[in-house]
Amino acid sequence: MESAISTLVTHFKTFAGKDGSSSTLSREEFRSLVASQLPTFVKNSSDPGVIDQLMGSLDENNDGELTFPEFWQLIGKLACKHGGFSQ
Amino acid sequence: MESAISTLVTHFKTFAGKDGSSSTLSREEFRSLVASQLPTFVKNSSDPGVIDQLMGSLDENNDGELTFPEFWQLIGKLACKHGGFSQ
C-alpha cells in the first residue's frame, strides 16, 4: 500500500510543480492530471465543464488552486465508486 | 494513478473480507492491515495503543468498524505526512 500512496503523492507533485508552486494544482494542472492519469475514472475529462464542476466541488477555499487534501477528496470519491462502496 | 487507486481498494477489500463483511474493517482486520501494509508510514503499529488511537480518530460513527471513507481519511493523513504537505 505504501508504494501506491507514494505513487499518488509523486504524481500530484509532478503536475503541481509545472507552474512553480508544487504544493497546489492550478486549474490547468488539474485538467492535465485528470486527462492523463484518470482517463477511465473521470469520464469526458476533455469537457471543460467536467473539470470546472470537479474543481468547484473540491476547491473548498475557492482560491482556484487545489491543495493536496482537497485533491485527496476527489481520489477518495473515485476510489469509493471504483470499489463499489457507498460514500 | 488509477492502478495505485485500485491497489488501495483491493487491499482494503482483502483485509476487510476476512470476517465475512468485506465492506468494513474490524479492529483486528485494521491492525493486521496496518502491520503488514503500512510498516513505515505507521510507527509502532504492534503497540495496541497506537491501533486504538488511530481507530478512535477514524471511526466517526464509533461502531467499531471502519468504512472505506473512514479508512481513506487515514491514508490521506499518511499521504500528506509522506508528501510533506500541511493537512
UniProtKB/TrEMBL annotation, chains A, B:
It comes from the Eukaryota. Keywords: Calcium, Metal-binding. GO terms for molecular function: calcium ion binding; calcium-dependent protein binding; transition metal ion binding. Residues 46-81 form the EF-hand domain. One of its GO terms (cellular component) is extracellular space. PANTHER family: PROTEIN S100-A11, S100 CALCIUM-BINDING PROTEIN. This is EF-hand domain-containing protein. It comes from Anguilla anguilla. The lineage of its organism: Eukaryota, Metazoa, Chordata, Craniata, Vertebrata.
